[in-house]
């Protein structure tokens, strides 16, 4: 499968939902957000414990290195408990920033202490380049934000969406021609919403 193109690549959090993955490095952001537990299928939150977070991190960085076309990916140090908590915090902030809603009750509290990230600007043969910077997992967090920024400039970030279902925050990449998708799984979340709407209409008649 060509680099950065696939529908079913080895992103561990996203593919457990059977989803098409976002292209290139944006797949890293999608997978990071999909470490959450979803309300219906309810697989475990992959960042809930240090052991599960480390297992996810090992797999996701291996996948990132295999598809990276920006030269940003690298093997990172082992997580500490403080690192794990920091990753949960940036995940909450990304949900708030990208989708306008919090995934966890801690998001608003964490937002008041929003950390700053410092990418490095370099001069290359193609012009001026922004790259992630920082030590350890701060580098990883900076990379996530820079990937989102690049996706925003390229107009593809808007295709990454959180499921509209009230009980599901799974993040999917909308490949529809008019970017009209709202459910991560039409048969599950879409059907559930239609049934609920039908019952509400029936109750008012």
Poorly predicted tracts of residues: 1-8, 107-112, 193-203
| Straight-line distance between termini | 53 Å
Sheet with most strands? 2 strands, antiparallel
CATH class: Mainly Alpha
Number of strands: 4
Using the 3D structure, state the CATH architecture.
Answer: Orthogonal Bundle
What is the C-alpha radius of gyration, as a whole number of Å? 18 Å
What's the number of domains? 1
Order of helices and strands: HHHHHEEHEEH
Strand content: 5-15%
Class based on secondary structure composition and strand pairing: mainly alpha
Helix content class: 40-55%
Compute the number of helices: 7
Adjacency order of strands in the biggest sheet: 1-2
The mean pLDDT is: 81
Shape: globular
CATH topology: Jann2411-like fold
Give a quick rundown of the structure.
This protein has 205 residues and is mostly helical. The chain has helices spanning 12-15, 26-33, 50-67, 81-99, 107-111, 137-154, 186-204; strands at residues 120-124, 127-131, 160-162, 171-173. The strands form 2 sheets. The protein has a two-stranded antiparallel sheet with strand order 1-2.
Structural overview:
The chain is mostly helical and 205 residues long. The protein has a single domain, classed as Orthogonal Bundle (Jann2411-like fold). The protein is 44% helix and 8% strand. The chain contains seven helices and four strands, in the order αααααββαββα. It has helices spanning 12-15, 26-33, 50-67, 81-99, 107-111, 137-154, 186-204, and strands at 120-124, 127-131, 160-162, 171-173. The strands form two sheets. A two-stranded antiparallel ribbon has the order 1-2. Strands 3-4 form a two-stranded antiparallel ribbon. The longest helix is centred in the middle third of the chain and has 19 residues, at 81-99. Residues 1-8, 107-112 and 193-203 have low confidence and may be disordered.
């Amino acid at each position: 499968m060509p680099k950065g193109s696939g529908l079913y690549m080895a992103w561990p959090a996203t593919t457990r939902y059977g989803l098409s993955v976002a292209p290139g490095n944006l797949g890293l952001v999608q997978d990071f957000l999909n470490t959450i537990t979803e309300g219906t299928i309810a697989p475990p939150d992959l960042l809930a414990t240090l052991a599960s977070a480390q297992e996810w991190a090992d797999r996701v960085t291996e996948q990132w290195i295999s598809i990276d076309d920006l030269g940003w990916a690298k093997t990172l140090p082992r997580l500490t408990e403080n690192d794990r908590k920091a990753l949960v915090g940036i995940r909450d902030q990304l949900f708030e920033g990208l989708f306008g809603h919090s995934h966890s009750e801690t998001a608003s509290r964490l937002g008041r202490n929003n950390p700053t990230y410092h990418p490095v600007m370099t001069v290359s043969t193609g012009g001026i380049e922004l790259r992630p910077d920082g030590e350890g997992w701060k580098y990883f967090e900076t990379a996530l934000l820079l990937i989102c920024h690049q996706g925003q400039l390229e107009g593809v970030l808007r295709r990454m969406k959180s499921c509209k279902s009230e009980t599901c925050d799974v993040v999917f990449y909308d490949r529809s021609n008019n970017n009209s998708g709202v459910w991560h799984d039409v048969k599950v979340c879409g059907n559930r919403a239609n049934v609920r709407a039908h019952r509400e209409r029936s109750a008012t008649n």
